[in-house]
Amino acid sequence: MSRLLLRMALPAPVYGLFDYLPPPDVEIRRLQPGQRLLVPFGRGERCGLLVELVKESEVPAHRLKAARALLDDTPLLDEAHLGFLRWAAAYYRHPEGEVLMAALPVRLRKGKALLAPRPDHVLVQDVSDEMLDRLAKRAPRQFELLSWLLEQEGGVRLEDVRQRFPSGRDALNALRRKGLVALVVGERAESEGKAMIHELEPEQQQAVDAVTARLDEYQAWLLDGVTGSGKTEVYFRIAEQVLARGRMVLLLVPEISLTPQLVRRVARRLAVTVAVMHSGLNEREREQAWQLARKGEARLVLGTRSAVLAPLPDLGLVVVDEEHDPSYKQQEGFRYSGRDLALVRARRAGCPVILGSATPSLESLKNAMEGRYGWLRLTRRAGGASPPTLQLLDVRNQRLEGGMSPVLLDALAQTLAGGRQAMVFLNRRGYAPVLSCFDCGWLSDCPRCDARQTLHRGQGRLICHHCGTERPLPRTCPACGSAELHPLGQGTEQLEQVLGRRFADFPLVRIDRDATSRKGSLDALLARVKKGGAGLLVGTQMLAKGHHFPDVTLVALVDVDSGLFSADFRSAERMAQLIVQVAGRAGRGAHAGRVLLQTRFPEHPLLQTLVSGDYAAFARQALKERQQAALPPYSSQVLVRASGRSMEVAEAFLQQAAELAGRLAGAGVQVWGPVPAPMRKRAGRYRAQLLLQTARRPDLRHLLAAFVPALQQLPDAGRVRWSVDVDPIDLY
Ligand code: ADP
Ligand code: ZN
Ligand code: ZN
């Protein structure tokens, strides 16, 4: 057969692509990979992406159907990008059609035409004091809006302006007519001016020199720099050179650190149009950012993990900030690691990739130690700030108040009396993790999970943090009717209450997922604390990221024990990273920082290593243990998860999967399980898992190619939900 056929990616949970004949009314030379076409599918019609033009098909000729219409004149994705996405689908064993379609903005997936660009940011132009005075007198609403915009220092999302000033449309238009503000596409700002740029510390300079000496080739770098060592400045210097050579920059950050402040800082410092990509955008904004990136109109793309899938025509540098952060791993559907794909992307683009962290993942450290990554170390804080000191507080046999010992409370009091700020950190939101009856022992179990419902006193509810099931707070015990219901343990809401009473004269801000939903009031409080002076910050790990509080001199971790004895072999690494990151918030300004860790296990080796040495000492030790146990990064893992209406059905499916893997696998792959998941029941479903592990990664990849498609055919496949997680980071 000499006719060309279209090999199409369609959004369907099927491994493999679909073949079609070209649309009858379209000349074959107009067809190129990366274009969308409308094709018949089942009884309906779908929008798909042309991946390849081929000569042969396994489908018999009489069964091939013709595509109905060509939707794009020019390809949406170029061949190099299609190649990257296909590689990723194959590596993670996820249906190719879903991966390729997921890389398109939602509207385009549905077959709609590309949006015409429309301004989505407001940028303040030159405004004289005189002009402001005049507005203040004659047009108070315009004055209010303009003053707020000026405070934001840079481009502001139109969406944010609308939210803040719901009826500010006329005022905005008036400011525009006067030439005081402009509406622009993408995040943009004028240059910050050289005065704000630091002279580099010697170690920073060495790092910049090392990377910029090799900008035209693939090389991975680990920027291993203590907190406050000025890693961001290093990224900026290198990015400047890459931009000056006319190439684009991809800067990835963890989910919670992508704040408007960061976006503005980047736009201002590098004086380029920035396309921002994260999950908080609406469909239109998302597509617009995607278009800016695809056309290379934004020279820098700043985003969370999914930005690694964006089209970037002349990629010249990839940066992954806080590369150890678990939010780089997508935990559902297409389970990719944004960090790992960043490396693949850079390799394919032939450009450097920088992984930055004060607490590098053991995977990256091992690669640096073995010479696969260049290892750039920043051992000192920039600008002369000194490192914080860590101290363990033994809380055995102590009278605790809201989980806090007298020594801790005294330290807080002293800090406040000295006019400084303290951060109190606890990685549990809500008031208490359990409500219990002291008469009969009833606990606030979640009816749908193998977990307890958390007490949220402010909302007056019990809420499960795993499935969201909630109920009103009972007054008497649901089991025995007793009034002796008491919270057990602490959450951030309780800390806020206890500290608020005790230190009533000082501003106190709570930062966690519940608190950030009351956004307006929080912003005002935060602004107050950031201005300086005595104050307290209470929160979960959200506190450790995104915000910069120069006046914090004391950091207290109320409970570090929960991370010490977990079933997951990565929990020690996570705990160490958390402690070091949180500690890194102390003493960033001119005053030295102090860190207090409350524990009932002061002799625990992990804590001892962190207190006497540093993260590097911990990491060396942890790597040794992983090597002895043949755990990642000394082996590769794949986790097959299944859930069903009973544990029996989940395990039966995985038993069939285990036998299949046993038949297909060579001697180099171990098959462990099935076993019930650490959380046996979640949202009403019973969960089990099967682990495949090998020291030789190619063996595993080879196995997966046959194993994963065959899972669909197993007898019990239809009775469970199952998924395959390549390089899992959570074994739950
Ligand atoms: P990191 O990301 O490594 O924790 P940051 O990049 O946030 O550190 O920098 C910490 C602080 O040090 C920032 O306030 C930054 O402006 C400042 N800084 C960075 N480089 C220098 C330098 N060379 N001299 C003085 N201050 C610097
Ligand atoms: Zn009871
Ligand atoms: Zn639940």
Could you characterize what this model shows?
- The model has no long low-confidence stretch (mean pLDDT 90).
- The chain is globular, with a radius of gyration of 28 Å.
- The strands form 7 sheets. Strands 11-12-10-13-14-9-15 form a 7-stranded parallel beta sheet, with helices on both faces. It has a 6-stranded parallel beta sheet with strand order 16-26-25-17-24-23, with helices on both faces. A 5-stranded antiparallel beta sheet has the order 2-1-4-3-5.
- It has 732 residues and is an alpha/beta fold.
- It has 21 helices and 30 strands.
- Helix 5 packs across helix 7, helix 17 runs antiparallel to helix 19 and helix 20 (647-664) packs across helix 21.
- The site of one zinc ion has 8 residues, from loops.
- Adenosine-5'-diphosphate binds at residues 198-201, 204, 225, 227-233, 382-383.
Low-confidence stretches: none
Approximate helicity band: 25-40%
Total helical segments: 21
| Small ligands present | adenosine-5'-diphosphate, zinc ion
Q: Which quaternary structure do these chains form?
A: single chain
Looking across the biggest beta sheet, what order are the strands in?
Answer: 11-12-10-13-14-9-15
The proportion of residues in beta strands is: 15-25%
Main structural class: alpha/beta
Gap between N and C termini, in Å?
A: 51 Å
Rounded mean pLDDT is 90
